[in-house]
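$ ./design --mode recover --in tokens.txt
reading tokens...
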């Protein structure tokens, strides 16, 4: 479950000296800093990972790997050197899972003393470190909810959604959707966390139904369970399902409407209804590329109506020429 303190994170760090820290802690340097695990600190609630069962399994896998293979030197942690009192300390800003895993491995007997750390360049701000949670992550991908936490933090830094989208590498529409999700009622977020509904379906429900989104999602979940599923998808949402089917049928409906216009009985339709049909047809007829789109749709429909044997024949034609010439028969699969 999302920790409320993650959402309200307001950590601050005072820039320190990387060289001074390495000197004070007697850390060595090869291609990168080698720092004792016991000296690394974590900024409370900075990590946006949601600590659910999947998270614990991930840490377990990493720890088991480290006990067997050690800590991979090509997977360094990222750190920020901060000044605390009269000394220097280093906070891990990326690689929290690996840090937790290595500590677990050490507690279970792994002989790992130092790990590689890449220190943030001078002038890095808390905003930069927050963006890096997404952009610098090369481990387990963040979930949409975890990315949403990052987006919300950046909003609290007074960033516009356009800038957040640019820095994180997403579309503005996607960022706006994540912000809508992270500000949704806890019940909706919990459905996403428990994988009862995807983030995209939840966001669509929030946009469509607002404060009634949870009720609609619950209705969708009941429909899904009735069909033997445990996850809501767009097809279980009445409005989304209807919209999808209308889009799919639109070209055929348009063609049928054109044919109705030329039917002898068209003039017998009431004037008011005929005016509505004419307005709709005029709007659609005026669209650029309408005939090309209809032709493509007709071609696609024709392909779908091919005889069942056609596909099998085509597959047979792809057999190597040598096999054809020899009249080779397909080898029967062995049954277990």
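writing sequence...
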């Amino acid at each position: 479950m999302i920790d409320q303190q993650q959402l309200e994170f307001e950590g601050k760090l005072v820039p320190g000296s990387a060289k001074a820290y390495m000197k004070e802690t007697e850390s060595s340097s090869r291609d990168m800093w080698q720092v004792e695990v016991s000296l690394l600190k974590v900024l409370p609630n900075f990590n946006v990972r949601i600590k659910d069962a999947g998270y614990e399994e991930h840490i377990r896998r990493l720890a088991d790997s480290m006990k067997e293979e050690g800590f991979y030197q090509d997977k360094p942690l990222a750190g920020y050197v901060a000044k605390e009192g009269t000394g220097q300390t280093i906070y891990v800003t990326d690689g929290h899972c690996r840090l937790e895993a290595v500590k677990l491995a050490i507690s279970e007997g792994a002989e790992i003393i130092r790990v590689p750390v890449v220190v943030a360049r001078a002038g890095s701000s808390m905003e930069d470190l927050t963006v890096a949670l997404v952009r610098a992550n090369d481990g387990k991908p963040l979930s949409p909810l975890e990315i949403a936490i990052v987006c919300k933090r950046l909003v609290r830094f007074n960033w516009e959604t356009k800038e957040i989208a640019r820095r994180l590498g997403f579309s503005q529409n996607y960022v706006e959707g994540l912000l809508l999700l992270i500000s949704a009622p806890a019940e909706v977020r919990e459905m996403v966390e428990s994988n009862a509904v995807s983030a995209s379906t939840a966001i669509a429900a929030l946009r469509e139904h607002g404060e009634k989104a949870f009720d609609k999602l619950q209705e969708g979940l009941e429909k899904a369970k009735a069909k033997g599923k445990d996850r809501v998808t767009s097809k279980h949402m009445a409005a989304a399902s209807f919209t999808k089917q209308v889009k799919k049928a639109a070209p055929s409906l348009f063609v049928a409407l054109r044919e109705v216009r030329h039917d002898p009985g068209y003039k017998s339709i009431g004037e008011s209804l005929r005016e509505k049909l004419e307005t709709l047809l005029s709007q659609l007829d005026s669209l650029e590329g309408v005939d090309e789109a209809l032709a493509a749709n007709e071609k696609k429909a024709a392909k779908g109506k091919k005889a069942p044997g056609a596909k099998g024949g085509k597959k047979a034609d792809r057999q190597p020429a040598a096999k054809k010439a020899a009249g080779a028969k397909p080898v029967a699969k062995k049954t277990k």
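exit 0
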